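User: Some background: our group keeps a shared notebook of sequences we're curious about, and every so often someone picks one and asks for a predicted structure to add to the entry. Today it's my turn. The entry only has the sequence so far, pasted here. Could you supply the structure so I can complete it?
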Amino acid sequence: MPNDVERCRPIFDALGQQTFVVGSAPATANLVKLAGNAMSATTLEVLGEVLALARKCGLDPQEFLAILTGTMFGSRVHRIYGDKIAGQQYAAGGFIFPLALKDIRLVLNEAESAGVPMPSVSVVRDRLITGIARGYSELDWSALGLLAAEEAGLAFEPADAHA
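Assistant: Of course. Here's the predicted structure to add to the notebook entry:
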């Protein structure tokens, strides 16, 4: 197995940012990927909620996001997806709701098997199902921010929501 990883490392390096070896079982790498997607999804949910709060309280969501990402929350997820949410740029494609829901369900199944409650991730599962029910199946998962805005009573239609 280590020889196989080393033989393929140039391909991995070309495709990704960094290669990590987390064990000999492929399922372990899959769990790492699923856990990362679960963290990203919960981050998007929270970003949507706080940006809806900012907007509803009269704050400029872009300025509010700049403060957050310039201080405590400067990760790529916060910056890239936060900018989409703050700018109400909910485009079709990318990591669409059904794909995100698939990964969330898989990580919740793993968690259940391991006896690990994940209440925040369960909320995101329900929010993704809500988005699909509202017709957002083809939107990128940043549209969790659209759901949060709608739940806050902020009625708007992003220009490219159904592009």
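Suggested note for the entry: The first helix runs from residue 2 to 15. The helical segments are 2-15, 26-56, 61-70, 76-86, 97-114, 119-133, 144-151.
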